[in-house]
Amino acid sequence: MRFVDEYRDEAGARRYVDLIGRTVTKPWTLMEICGGQTHTFIKSGVDRLLPESLTLVHGPGCPVCVTPLELIDRALAIAARPEVIFTSFGDMLRVPGSTADLLSVKARGGDVRMVYSPLDAVKLAQQHPEREVVFFAVGFETTAPANAMAVWQAEKLGLGNFSILCSHVLVPPAMEAILGSPASLVQGFLAAGHVCAVMGTHEYEPIAAKYRVPIVVTGFEPLDLLQGVYLAVRALEEGRAGVENQYARAVSREGNRPAQTLMKQVFKVCDRAWRGIGVIPASGFALRPAYARFDAVKRFDVGAITAQESPLCIAGQIMQGLKKPHECSAFGTLCTPERPLGAPMVSSEGACAAYYQYARKP
Amino acid sequence: MSDAKVPPIETLGLQCPIPRSEYPQVTLAHGGGGRLTHALIERLFLAVFRNPALEPLHDGAVLEVPAGRLAISTDSYVVSPLFFPGGDIGSLAVHGTVNDLAMCGAQPLALTAGFVLEEGLPMDDLWRIVRSMAQAAKDAGVSIVTGDTKVVDRGKGDGVFINTTGIGIVPEGVLIAPARARPGDRLLLSGRIADHGIAILSVREGLSFETTIESDSAALNGLVGSLLGVLGERVHVLRDPTRGGVASATNEIAVSAQVGLRLEERAIPLAEEVRGACEILGLDPLYVANEGKCLAIIAPEAAEQALELMRAHPLGREAALIGEVVADHPGRVMMRSRVGGMRIVDMLSGEQLPRIC
Amino acid sequence: MCLGVPGRVLTVEENAQGMIMGTVSFAGVNKEICLAYVPEAKPDDYVIVHAGFAISIINEQEAGETFEILRRMGELADLEEESEGAPGVSPDPGPAPPADRSDGSLPLPGSGRQG
Prior knowledge:
The complex is a heterotrimer of chains A (362), B (357) and C (115). Helices cover 28% and strands 22% of the residues of chain B. With 357 residues, chain B is an alpha+beta fold.
């Protein structure tokens, strides 16, 4: 596959690993923001090829993992209603709420359907005017354009039976929250390439300047990540802060203007709770008042939701890179992929699931 | 091998024997045990599956069975949709059980077929499925010798569920068991992976995409027979990577035999289109189901020959050496990725789901 | 976030709502994708697709930089090896690196320390 295979070349990978090895003279801690980056590191095994002195921490780049418990419980309540067709990306189906997940709601008779794109949910709404179609709009900025377009299209079509449950989260505020935390060990970042394809790289410049860190925007193939690591450690060794763009084939400084325009039209920035971390100001998207009728929270009164997070789950500390999964008292015992206590054990990108599956040793 | 007395399937006309004008759909009465049930059995099932063991329509079939170790296997088939590119629930029901017998080292002797039909199933669909089963059985050289039919209320079934149970004989000099896997043994795979799972997804609502990918559903007893016929005891383990894909099958072997398995990602055959589909859905092909592929663990000195034998068979043209059994990390499967790193290939806890994250 | 796959644009057209849609091929698997966010996309362009939407057109020129770095490093390494056999000769650092594409705040690969 073009623009995929070239970035999985073994010889190229080895040479980047060499290059990194020759560049590193002291220990450094890097955080990769995005679950997709984590996934590639682990699936390709290239993280194990990196020098021992380099520590990779998995960041909170898992929108699935950070969706607040209250919202998941709300999703479950809505999905259980007989008039609702509840649609979602595959990622969300097994994330545990306080007592259940979407798959178990399906097992009990809820009409829960997996879709590839939010436009498929809009199509369902057109095909089933007698039902209420709800789409679980989870994601970082990468997915916001798709969700914005779905709402925009629903409005154009005059659909009265379509709504979204919005759980968008934004990367730059999360990065600041991590860097601002006194316990943070992170010295450099690998930023998420597809988030930046939409938003551009310019939002990260003030962060890099304020905290004096290198931030390298990377793609998601092994060579992208290795080149990204190389650029990051080179910057650290040279004492340079600032933003570098490894993924220039897909990312520009300004980002995707048409996408940003529609996102601004449909969404406004709001404070958002991040599961396991707490409220981060101005870190989420909500529907603007003009689109309020597409907001599933307003549309469905599901009564009071009292979310009950497991007291054992330390997902927040793990997602901030403060603890590693195996340092959790419940890891692998009370909390396993079959019976997860928190989201990072369920989502395939979650740090805990990755550790469990690939049996990382300390 | 098969019973040489199996008669050829009569070529039926294109007309469903129970015409639409009579009964366009299966009704509860068809499962009642009375006249309609008999009509269904005789005009549809019997007419299509016709063979001497089935004709008497007793409660069971009585067969002459050669001496030897008897293998028996059962499976139920609930696939949705009923018809998919490259197959249907009927052919799958035959292939699957024949393959389970083959993975024991047995050639199939006979199959049973139990149907649970949902009220309202179009008779045409049933007829298509039954004909497909008959063809699959013929190709595998096996007869369907007895069966059962039940009908359940509308909404209590997914169109049709099928159970097939198969018996076969394991020839002398064949000893298949996970415990026989030894460090140094080679792991062979009979062809490219993930075709079946992707073919099913391509027609699943909400995920559809245009593709020429077809299910690889096929009976493997011929391929296995040619391997065992020449190599006998040097074939240590056989496994078909169905649900859960190559990843699950290899893990089962590793755990059962308490050996390590080491795979080489670049050696695993994968069609470009299947790869494209896996990429856009975020699926790992190692975990996607196959229905016409076989993993074989072979004594090292016989591996080359095993590969040649597989490739000589129409179902094994793309057979490849994909790994080996090692003494390290017993119970675990490791894989050297295409890009040169090592990863653990673990068991999934549930079904692999398409993702965007 | 995350899963964005490169695919080749086959066709581009407007749908009944005036939205630009296209057929994109992923190694022969074709899917209908919304191209509204890449209005300049034309057949044979490669786009990055996420959740049914193209979010970026791949810049083929930029795509080579990953390998350029390795090539340049390889050249420098070769030159150092050569010069080791000739004492007193300082190695030529090779061709000037291309212009920076980021925010201008960084020195360029090849200048300063060799990696």
